[in-house]
Amino acid sequence: MLMTLSRNDKVLVLVVDFDDDLSLANVETPVIGYENVLKVGCSFGVVKPKDSDLNAIFVGLNTYNEFKNKGFNVEIAVVSGSREDGPASFIKISKQLDYLKEKLGFSHIYLVSDSPQDEAIIPLLNSYGKVIGIERAIVEQIRSVEETYLVLSKYLKKAFTEQPYAKYFLGIPGLLIFTYIVLFILGLSEYITWFSLLIFSIIMITKGFGVIDRIREFWRTSIFSGVLIGASTVLLTYTVIIVIIILYLEGYSFQALYS
């Protein structure tokens, strides 16, 4: 890909921190220039020395030097997303790219990331310049039992303390356990499989059709509409479940409809 570049093409080595871990070191992005990025790497390394974003920063600096040594017109920058989930990160990164495009006038982008999540912005990057390369910052480790345990404990901590991981690792299992307890108390534990499938189907429909995002959008534009839709969704779901339970306890059979 580098063979297609001319010395006049402006290349941006872009380091992406999608979930904004840099904010833990009070770093505001975008950060532009080799010296500034190096300072950010050092300050972030003091706060989060084991974070994979730190590796991405120094991989980006190394990549910048490689381009520079080969005589290319290159600049380096760091952008970050949001601690919130999904759309907020894309919006924030897009605004930073607007600024970088206007200030630097780059035509090509070399992306440096530390996870597949960061690489989700590639379609967005293509609207700002030609993506000529992607480099994943991978931490070299000795695969010992002790280090495997440390890595596992790190991600378990993320699962318990950080969104959006917590809602999947804690929220959904917690909902299933709660459902099982309720059904057990009501003497309906034999239906746990069906109720579990019902919960999963609701979650899949909600995520698949972007129901939560739509509710959030309504919430932003109209508080009344957001509250009404959110409350209606929850109320309808629990009403259906309660009605099914009551009908069962009353000995109602749907086969009566056909007799």
Describe this structure in words.
- The protein is built from 9 helices and 5 strands.
- It is of the alpha/beta class.
- The chain has 2 domains: 2-136, Rossmann fold (3-Layer(aba) Sandwich), CATH 3.40.50; 155-258, no CATH class.
- The longest helix has 27 residues, at 223-249.
- The termini are far apart.
In short:
Keywords: Membrane, Transmembrane, Transmembrane helix. This protein is an alpha/beta fold. The chain is 57% helix and 12% strand.
Looking at this protein, list some descriptive labels.
single chain; 259 residues; alpha/beta; Rossmann fold; 2 domains; 9 helices; 5 strands; 57% helix
Q: Helix and strand layout, with pairings?
A:
Layout: E1 10-17, E2 31-32, H1 34-47, H2 52-69, E3 73-80, H3 87-104, E4 108-113, H4 122-125, E5 130-136, H5 145-161, H6 165-185, H7 192-208, H8 211-221, H9 223-249
Parallel strand pairs: 1-3, 1-4, 4-5
Antiparallel strand pairs: 2-3
InterPro entries: DUF373
Protein name: DUF373 family protein
Pfam family, one: DUF373
According to CATH, what is the class of the largest domain? Answer: Alpha Beta
Assembly annotation: single chain
Shape: elongated
Radius of gyration: 25 Å
The CATH architecture classification of the largest domain is 3-Layer(aba) Sandwich
